[in-house]
Amino acid sequence: MRKFEVVSSFKEFHPVLPKRATEGSAGYDLSAVQDVTIDPKQIVLIPTGIKAYMGREEALFIFPRSSLAIKRGLMMSNSVGVIDSDYYGNPDNEGHIMVPLINITEQPVTIKKGERIAQGIFMPFLKTSDDEVKSTERTGGFGSSGH
């Protein structure tokens, strides 16, 4: 069963649990949990205060909201984020979903608490018939599978 939960260290910020905007929406809207200003050409990890539980053969793909670049001059620095199922509950940060944004404008841009910045879509993934993994457990937090 898939579900979103609040990261314990962010409970006092009262993060918004992701929701789909309409019945036909594939993505769950992810919001900033606090105000963050991004200077020109700067990349900043925007905290959401949220983690996601999912099945072992699923991943949560994080995409920028379509209006982010056009209206705000912001882009996800990694284009698409991939949240693996074993990121949930890792000892470094509980699986906190953070969105890396880059400001492509010449002016500082402020993201406000509660502003929707990305969307997450749960998807199953396939493995090759000769699949072998280097480790059976995650060793850290954001960007940490590092092999």
Give the arrangement of secondary structure elements.
Layout: E1 3-6, E2 28-31, E3 36-38, E4 43-47, E5 50-53, E6 58-64, H1 66-72, E7 74-76, E8 81-84, E9 98-103, E10 109-111, E11 116-124
Antiparallel strand pairs: 1-5, 2-11, 3-10, 4-9, 6-8, 6-11, 7-9
How do you describe this structure in short?
The protein is mostly beta strands and 147 residues long.
Q: Could you describe the 3D structure shown?
A:
The protein has one helix at 66-72; strands at 3-6, 28-31, 36-38, 43-47, 50-53, 58-64, 74-76, 81-84, 98-103, 109-111, 116-124. 5% of the residues lie in helices and 35% in strands. The chain contains 1 helix and 11 strands, in the order E-E-E-E-E-E-H-E-E-E-E-E. With 147 residues, the protein is mainly beta. Strands 2-11-6-8 form a 4-stranded antiparallel β-sheet. A 3-stranded antiparallel β-sheet has the order 4-9-7. The chain has a single domain (3-124), classed as Distorted Sandwich (Deoxyuridine 5'-Triphosphate Nucleotidohydrolase, Chain A). The model has no long low-confidence stretch (mean pLDDT 92).
